[in-house]
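Lecture 7 notes: from sequence to structure.

We start with a single chain of 167 residues. Read the sequence below before looking at the structure.
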Amino acid sequence: MRDIFVEKLVLNICVGESGDRLTRAAKVLEQLTGQEPVFSTARFTIRSFGIRRNEKIACHVTVSGEKAEEILNKGLMVKEYELQRRNFSQTGNFGFGIQEHIDLGIKYDPATGIYGLDFYIVLGRAGLRVARRKQRNAKVGTSHRLTKADAINWYETKYNEEYAKVL
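Now the structure, written as tokens:
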């Protein structure tokens, strides 16, 4: 009941502009996950960055199950299984970024280019759905909630304490 598992993995590429670079970034995410990415829009106009409100500037994909664990392992291999303590949130989730998507095993294509991407991992326990469901939702007890210490402990035990380091 208290076993921790990967609920979902969110991969995000923020290009900062719409157009051809964004569609190429979406193709990278599709190659990596086999799912169609969703585009994110700018919340407001920033003239110095050259973006307008509601302009598509990023794309993301949410993956769960075995596929999420497989992609997470590739991403952690790039980071050499070393994460910092600040990568973990107070609610027991964690995230990190990589500089080049080709480190994940995707072949380099000069027409596509190189993109960095963000990984965000949401951890869960059996029974946490009671707080999110529509009917008869309830609070999760404090002893059952995930904390930063729980997430770090899970990470170090799951990915072997000699490899997985939290600095």
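The CA atoms of residues 2 and 125 lie 6 Å apart. Keep this in mind for problem set 3.
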